[in-house]
Amino acid sequence: MKSTTIMDSEWQKARLEELWTEVVLAQANDARLAIDQPPELIVIRLLGNLRERYLKAIDESNDTEARRALAIGHLAWQLLSLEVADWLTDIGPPWPLADREFWRGDEINERFALSLTINRQLNAAPLLHQQAIDLVALMLPRWLLENLINALEALSHGEVHKLVAPTHIGKHNDAWSWEKMRLRAVQHVNFLSGQGIIKKVALKRVSVATGIGEGTLRQWETAFVKDVAANLSVDWAKKSGNLKTILEDNPRYGENDGNSVDGYAYNLLLDLREESLTQFGIRYRERFGSRHNQDPSAGN
Fold it and tell me: What Cα–Cα distance (Å) separates residue 6 from each residue in 89, 182, 186, 299?
């Protein structure tokens, strides 16, 4: 096994050197770019040249040249990633993402690896700056990307690979969407509570808006305590309510006054402002109202 690994590593190195010489250096040479530079600088300058070629081809309606520049650009980008940032695909100890054997045969674990890897890269920036990073740069090990592509292609033929198959089969085929909206309902309760409204009144308001019984809302909140991520989201909602009250009194709170604002709480505050409790209640009733036949003031 060790000799095979060494051979594979040597084979990979040789193929990368071929690409470097026959594509990157050849293209850089043709563009009259300096090639006596560190590899990453050569690639960066080549990408700038390819972008100019691509835009010029688009202006001239030269689709063939545009596709060629784009294809070479993709290759150069991948080689740059390997040169300076291949380690960034790692999701950290104790999960060796590059080691396919560690994950092989268990598509649920593969899905965990895929989800965590994408989320790490998607949410790399501080929360309030994340939306500014678009397009999102994403790097994946080849084995994981190939498994995802195969799973998506199989879906087009009606075949469901475990990588994209539901983990739990229940009576509802929209369990994820309902879970998200149930969490948002509980967040609204805590958002009101964070503004100083007593819990009983907050439960009543959300119940009236959504048609969900107050007792049901309490049960959901208790269940979310057992889920670390959901419990954090509920806590952020309460902090968001508190932050809303603070900002109403002092809109410049946190601006060079020695105070700090929780980024997650502020981001959630923006979401809750964008869709009010009334609007959320209408959306919830339209989609899931049939699952709640009780009077809104009932206890279940």
Answer: 22, 52, 54, 66
| HSE of 298, CA atoms in CB hemisphere, 13 A | 11
* Prior bond of 96 cis (ω within 30°): no
Count the Cβ atoms, other than its own, within 10 Å of residue 296.
Answer: 16
- Angle, vertex CA 210, rays to CA 268 and CA 176, nearest 5: 60
pTM: 0.61
Distance CA 187, CA 16 (A): 51
Residue-by-residue DSSP string for 252-292: TTTSSSS----HHHHHHHHHHHHS-HHHHHHHHHHHHGGG-
* Radius of gyration, CA atoms only, the chain: 26
Helix (H) or strand (E) segment spanning residue 103: helix 100-103
Query: What integer pLDDT is reported at residue 300 of this predicted model?
Result: 41
pLDDT in tens, 135-175: 888 888 888 888 899 989 999 888 988 888 876 655 556 78
Q: What was the pLDDT predicted at 296?
A: 41
The residue among 122, 143, 142, 119 whose CA lies nearest residue 133 is 122
Poorest-confidence range of 35-39, 167-171, 209-213, 247-251?
Answer: 167-171
Residue 55 tokens, joined: 């835009």
- Collapsing DSSP to helix, strand or coil, 254 comes out as coil
> Which residue's entry shows tokens 């850089």?
28
User: Is 90 exceeded by the pLDDT of residue 277?
Assistant: yes
State the Cα–Cα distance between residues 21 and 226, nearest whole angstrom: 55
Task: Assess contact for 177 and 170: CB atoms under 8 A.
Answer: no
- The rounded distance, in Å, linking the Cα atoms of 283 and 180 is 13
Spatial distance between the Cα atoms of 137 and 133, rounded to a whole number of angstroms:
9
Q: What is the DSSP letter of 167?
A: S
* Nearest of 69, 43, 75, 44 to residue 56 by alpha carbon: 69
Of 196, 195, 281, nearest in space to 240 by CA: 195
